[in-house]
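Reopening this ticket.

The earlier resolution said the output was attached, but the attachment link was broken on my side. Pasting everything inline this time so it's all in one place.
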Amino acid sequence: MRAGSGVWALLRMQWRTTWLWLLLSPALLAALVVAIASGVKDLYGEETERMIYAETMGASPAQITMNGRGYDLNVLGGIAAYEVGFMGQLLLPLVGVLLAVRLTRAPESNGVLDLLTSTRVHRTAVPAAAFMSLVISWAVFKLGCWAGLVMLGYPATGSAGYSLAMAGFGLAWSGVGLLTAQVASTPRAANGLGLLLALAGYLTRMIVDSQDWPGVWISPMSWVVEVRPWNDLRWPPLLSLSLLAAGGAAAAILGTANRDLGSGLLPARLGRPGAGPLLSRPAGLAWRSTRGAVLGWLLGSVIWVALLGLMTDDFTSTIAANPNLLAALGGRADDLAPQIGLLLASVMATAAGLTVTLRIASEESRARLGLLLSGRINRWGWWLGWNGLALFVTALVLMLSAATLGICQWWATGDPAALGDDLAAGFAFLAPALAMVGFGSLLIGVAPQLGFLSWGFPIWTLVVGMLAEILQLPGWARRFSPLDWVGNLPGETADGAAVLLLATSAAVAVLTGGYALDRRDLLRG
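Inline output:
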């Protein structure tokens, strides 16, 4: 069989089976970028306001560390690009990697690729067709961004350059995802490796920019910033992003031709010949299955809040010098750093808990749950053990992060009260974080196929916490964030009734999910 045969057939199949993901993901990302640009236009419509922004935010070490180096901050386009900032540098790689793995490693893991390659379809056609699908998907994102920005009144040329840079950035990380799908032997490992590389790239960019080193070429996170589309577009960074995307796709094609079906270029580590006593309990098995991801979320959260805590003074002075931004954020300048830190800690703690909870659906769909339940463990015992660990790791990540934030703030400001304030706020935010994890448990218990919807709450919580004022979200939309119910902490008094309600809803959701699982048939097994 000729290498690459069946590309067009696979391309059609990918769009017939995953068209929703390939269109919805870029559409939502484009809508977020356009919404931020709309808010920026309302906030910084006057030239004097833009000059204040450039002098404060553009010179702030804390903002440079988080968002990268700011260029053309005296025009609306440059400010909009800077406000997309770190969320764009993290969300686009996330979507790029997940889409790439979904199109390549996932069909191989569930046996679909084995059936396809038994016909006139060559294995190398899979990454080739996936790359073509991803190019189309990111082109949709580019067109959506460009059209939205032009409709808002942004310059057409600058909008085209910015949209091209962002689409190229997303496609570059899709190329990375295509490669990690060949290196790792499971979709979960491929996603984890891709996201680890994205985090490493972001941290590298943070270090280079915070120290004002000249090595902007080291990380792809800097390449997208260095395009500078709103004044004098630079083509070398765009070319670098294109080469990364094409190189990842080419390496993926080469890799899939030189490995066994179902394996990865890196062999999986062999397990022990016998199980230890920990694996005889549901919670122990849950920990063994998800510990890598949980520790990753814990490490990421602690690093984030530590940096924010150490930069508290810089955040305070920067926001206090920018009246428009201070009014838009709706809070005191000295509360901003801990508020952002606890928001990120709450979202990451929720993600750690959902990582454990959603693994339940994977165990059921692969028929492993049925095998486990054929022994001495009943459904309720297994459900409570697994979800108990999910709730525990949520609390662990959040409270350790709150303690780290408080200690770093204490170190930076010399105020020991910061530790107590951050711990109290973290404890108050524990209820909404547990409620979001409980919602995931409820979905898994009722309909495991819908488990992915549980990510909606933490993602929306992050959007509300970071962009609510810039996007000018109405009050009813903000209430879909469980953290909004508790209050803007620290700096406000926590709503005790909301904390009690959310904590109760978490318990009720977990128990209801267990009841639903106990009453229905398993998907497989």
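Reporter confirms the inline version is readable. The CA atoms of residues 72 and 138 lie 25 Å apart. The chain has a mean pLDDT of 88.
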